[in-house]
Prior knowledge:
Elements: E1 11-13, E2 20-22, H1 39-43
Antiparallel strand pairs: 1-2
Amino acid sequence: MSNHKKQHLPEKHCPTCGLTFNWRKKWAKNWEHVKYCSEKCRRNKTT
């Protein structure tokens, strides 16, 4: 069994779809610049 505590990960709200998304390891270096939950939302962003 794994000892990961996923409930303690930082969260953000996607401005395109409004969903809450959690921190991911691939975003570790630029988490403060991440705005969208997915590539699809990034492409369909509203101005």
